[in-house]
Amino acid sequence: MTLSGRDAYRDELTHLATEDERILCLEADLGGSKHPFAAGHPDRFFNLGIAEGAMVDMAAGLAAAGYKPFVSTFAPFAALRAAESVKLSLGYFGAGVTIVAPYAGVAGAWFGTTHQCLEDFAVLRGIPGIVVAAPHGEEEMRAVVRGAAVSDRPHYIRTGRNAKPASLPRPATGIPLVNWEHVPEESDEVCLVSVGETGTELALRAREAHPALAHAHLCFVDHHHLQQAADELSARYHRFVVVEEHRPDGGVASALALLMPGCTVHTVNAGHEWLSCGGDHAEVLTQLGMDLPAVLEAVERCRSNHPPLVKKGT
Amino acid sequence: MTPQAHSLTASLDSGTALHERALAARKLVIDMAASERGCHLGGSLSAMDIMIAALDRVAADEGSRMVLSKGHAAAGLYSALYLTGMLAENPAPLYGSVEHHYTGHPTHAVPGVTFPTGSLGHGVAYAAGWAMARRTAGADGLGIAVAGDGELQEGLVWETCQVAAARRLGNFVLVVDRNKGQNDGLVVDISPMAELAERFRSFGFDTVEVDGHDLTELSGIFARDRRDSECPLAVLADTVKGKGLPPVEGKAASHYVTIDAERAAKWKEIVR
Fold first, then answer.
1. Which of B61, B124, B144, B159 to probe by mutation at the A interface, max A CB count within 10 Å?
2. ∠ CA B94-B95-B100 to the nearest 5 degrees?
3. Domain extents for chain A?
4. Looking at beta carbons, which residues of chain B come within 8 Å of A93?
5. C-alpha distances in Å from residue A239, one per residue of A204, A228, B25
C-alpha cells in the first residue's frame, strides 16, 4: 500500500531510529495520537505542544548536544511562524535539524488560508545553507529522510496532506539532481520541469496528453542544488515549463530563469490570489489556475514562443 | 552514541577571584565603549556578574552551556569569555572592526559563544534545548540562559517556559537580568511585568530572587546540578544598569554609549 508523504516520513524515521539512537522526533501537536515513532521509541518522541518557534530553537540546542532532531509541523507554521528561528538555528547557526512540513501548497484545501502555504520556497530558498526538498511519492520521501538522517546539514522537507502519488522510477543509487522521467527522441521539444507532489502529477498528465514533451523532475530545490540542475537542464533543452504549487515569487521557476539566462522559462504556479472558499485540493488548485489545461496552455505558449511569464534574466 | 554524562572537571573559583575577574572585564567593556562603534554599556555591566559566575560553571563542566540571550550585551560577553579563559585574545581592540568577529550582537564564530543572539528570545529556547538534551541522555549539566527583563516581553520566552515546564527540565536555568531598563526607557513605563516571581511559579518554575551582583550567591546557584529537580529555575537577579561605574549607574542613557579615550581612562580608574 502506497503511503502519503507525511506517513512515509513517519514510518521511515521510525525505522531509522531503531539503528540510530541519536534520532529524536519532535512534534508541535500536529503529529496525531497514533504516531508510529511514539509507539516505537516513546523515550525519543516529544510533543512539545503548540510552540513552533521554541521547537525549532530547542532543536538547535539538541543538535548541538549530539542529537539528530526531526521536527514536524504544518508548512505555514514551520516556514512562516517560525521563520526567524529557522533563519538563525538552521541557516546561520547551521544546526543539523530537519524540518518536515506537511500541508505545503494548498493541500490543506478547505481548511483555509491559515492552513495553506504557498510561500515556503520563497522563505526557505532565501536562507542559505538549508537543503530544501519537495519529494514526490513514498519512495522519494523515504530516500530524502534517509539522506537527512546521515547528514549533518539542516533540511526542510515539504510535503502534502494525504495524497499518495505513485513513486517515479529513479536510479537505485539515490535521488538524482535531475530525474529525467521522460526524454523523447525529438530533442527540440519543450521540457516540463516538475516540483513537488502536485507539480509532478500535473506534469505527468500533460506528458501523457503530449508524449513528445520531455519531463524532468526535481526533488532538491535549494539554490545549491538548482545551480547544478540548471546546468544539466540547459545542456539538453532550451524551452521549459516549470510546474510548482507555489506563488511565482521566490519559487523554482523564477530561480531557474535567473540560472538559465539563455533559455525560455514559463511557469504554471498558484499565482497571487488569496482564496477564501472551500473545496478539495484539486478544486482549490483549479481556482488558483493550477490544472491540466493551464499546463497545456503554458506548453503551447512556450512552443509558440510567446513572451514568457517569467522573463529571461530577470 | 548518545551525548554522555560529564562531571565537573575543575573546581569553581572563589567569590574574590570572580570579583577580580568581573572588574577586569568591566574595564574591557569601557574600552569597547571608547571604540569607534561604542557599545551597549549599561546592559553589559548589569549582566557582567551573572555571566562571570555562569561561565565559571561552564568552564568547569563541559556538560553545561550558557547563552547570552540578551545579545546586545555582547561587549560584556566577549569580555567575560576572555577573562574566564574561554577566549584566547583580548576582544576590546578588535571589537566592531571589519576583520574580526566581535560584532555588536554575538556570533558563534567567536570561540565560547554558544549561539548567535540579538533577536530576543531565541537564546532562551536554545538553552532549554541544551538542557533537554542532557536530560534525554540521562546526563548532568545545565542549560543556562541570561535574558533581560525587557526581553520577557517577547512571546518566544514564554512559549519556551511553557515547554520547559511541561518537559520538567529542572536543569534549565533562566536568569533574568532585572536592570529595569530597555531600549526606549524603563520597563515599568513601557510594558511592566507585575508579580514576576509569581508569574514564573505559575508556569511551574522554581524561583529565586537574588542580588545580581552578589557573585558568591550567583556562583552557589550555578554550582548546583539540579539533577533531582523537575522544575526549571528562574533566577530573578536584581541588577543596576551600568553597575560598577558611578557616573552611569542606574541611568537609562547608559543603554548605548560611545566615549572618547580620555573619558575611558578616567572611568577605568573609578570602576569597581
1. B159
2. 60
3. 5-158, 179-303
4. 108, 115-116
5. 17, 17, 63
Domain A179-303: which CATH number of 3.40.50.920, 3.30.470.20, 3.40.50.300, 1.10.3720.10: 3.40.50.920
pLDDT confidence tier of residue A187, bands split at 50, 70 and 90: low
Bridge pairing between strands B181-182 and B185-186: antiparallel
Interface test with A, best of B1, B58, B101, B115 (most A CBs within 10 A): B115
The answer, for B240 touching chain A at a CB cutoff of 8 Å, is: no
- Residues in chain A within 8 Å Cβ distance of B163: 48-49, 51, 54-55, 58
Strands (E), A12-97: 23-27, 45-47, 68-72
A197 pLDDT more than 60: yes
Q: Which fold has domain B15-270?
A: Rossmann fold (3.40.50)
Residues in chain B: 272
Residues 6+ apart with CB under 8 A from B76: B25, B29, B40, B43, B44, B45, B47, B48, B51, B68
Q: Which of B108, B129, B134 sits opposite A59 (nearest CB)?
A: B129
Res A72: pLDDT:
98
What are the two backbone dihedrals, phi and then psi, of residue A195, each rounded to the nearest 5 degrees? -135, 130
Least CB–CB distance from B2: residue in A22, A46, A55: A22
> Is the confidence at residue A307, as pLDDT, over 70?
no
Tell me whether domains A5-158 and A179-303 share a fold: yes
**B108 contacts chain A (CB < 8 A):** yes
Positions in chain B whose pLDDT score sits under 70: 1-11
B208 — contact with chain A (CB < 8 Å)? no
Write out the CATH class of domain A5-158.
alpha beta
Distances in Å between the Cα of A266 and the Cα atoms of A80, A167, B108, B183, B227 are 27, 25, 42, 49, 60
Q: Spell out the domain ranges in chain B.
A: 15-270
Interface of B with A in 35-94 (CB under 8 A): 65
CB contact under 8 A, B133 and A64: yes
ipTM here:
0.92
Instruction: Point out the residue among B2, B121, B129 whose CB comes nearest to the CB of A58.
Output: B129
CB pairs under 8 A between A and B: 103
